[in-house]
């Protein structure tokens, strides 16, 4: 493998560079999403439909804690990308050391808190009735592995900031493949049920952590930190926090959304509706993998070139990323509109779930072709270190539009109102993001009159 330098982010042609960054990211997200998807299929077929709902209850809690790692990772990686672009290597090293320290402090504290209040947390997120016991089993075991997952999510973003997308892809693939193999062994062969599903997930997080640790210890990484870099530095912590809070706020809103959705759907349609939402949620993670991959590939390119004041390249990567993502999102839209029932049957044989889910899936993905604008727009402000607009645009869809809609529309339309909220919030968020992104491009990225490509 040819040695890749972070400096390539500022010199290679944008189209080629975006593909080089986005394809490994997309493959990594695809494998990770397939892991979640197949894991759900295994659980649904080998344990039962209620187990799918149980995992869906646990995900927002465990993912929120793990998202601390991603938040610290993305916040710090924005600093690292711009520092490397501006030849400030020492700042990049201190930032990475501070990321590790912060991730460990926060995630371990929250895991202890989460385990202590387990009996209150699970019902709050919709784990009621027959869902409670399997959810509790899964929750307690998975939480042990969450600090490792957080470190992996943090490390993965730093690997991308170094311009090493293939290694970031491997880091995402290893736990996914490991989880599927262990699922088969623990659930199907050994008959451990929910405990087997949980231990397979936790062990997969550990596998990922081992790989991330190897990468940064090897010659493949440019970031060779020393013990002194782990000491928290106020200005770096503040900058990581302001930028990372964008990602954390997004995940917090996702967790709150799960809380509302699981409870609202349980009241409207019982366990069947919660299971339908779990299936649709898996498809949201899986089907949009190429769009998320382009967004991940876009971040280090935009950050590096902004830090190097190569504004024409920043404009070009924005336009290219949106164009590629819209095309891919439109293809996904067609597939999901045509085959929702066939997709649902992969997860379960429950007749009621199969009857309800296809219609819900069509509503949820109705505005898919335009979501690329919202994702790339919000990511741009995070990449260049503008925390407040990044935060506001990130929260626009779910925080400002979606949550109010799912509280209001069901009053008039019942369960249909819940599903209608998805495309309406997508359209509104895209309009707002497009306006502010266009305004930013015109005001900021035309400042430099002469620039070499």
Mean pLDDT: 85
Shape: globular
Q: What order do the SSEs take from the amino end to the carboxyl end, as H and E?
A: HHHHHHHHHHHHHHH
As residue ranges, the low-confidence spans are 449-453
Q: Terminal Cα separation, in Å?
A: 26 Å
Roughly how many Å is the radius of gyration? 21 Å
Measured by DSSP, the beta-strand proportion falls in: under 5%
| Most strands sheet | none
Class derived from helix and strand content: mainly alpha
Percent of residues in helical segments? over 70%
Number of strands: 0
Q: How many helix segments?
A: 15
Please describe what this structure looks like.
- 83% of the residues lie in helices and 0% in strands.
- With 453 residues, it is mainly alpha-helical.
- The two termini are 26 Å apart.
Topology:
Layout (H helix, E strand, L loop, with lengths): L13 H33 L2 H37 L3 H28 L1 H7 L7 H30 L3 H25 L3 H25 L16 H54 L1 H19 L3 H28 L1 H8 L3 H14 L6 H13 L3 H27 L1 H30 L9
Helix pairs in contact: 1-2, 1-6, 1-8, 1-9, 2-3, 2-5, 2-8, 2-9, 3-5, 4-5, 5-6, 5-7, 6-7, 8-12, 8-14, 9-10, 9-13, 10-13, 11-12, 12-15, 13-14, 13-15, 14-15
Task: Put the structure in a nutshell.
It is built from 15 helices and no strands. It has helices at residues 14-46, 49-85, 89-116, 118-124, 132-161, 165-189, 193-217, 234-287, 289-307, 311-338, 340-347, 351-364, 371-383, 387-413, 415-444.
Provide tags for this entry:
453 residues; mainly alpha; globular; 15 helices; single chain
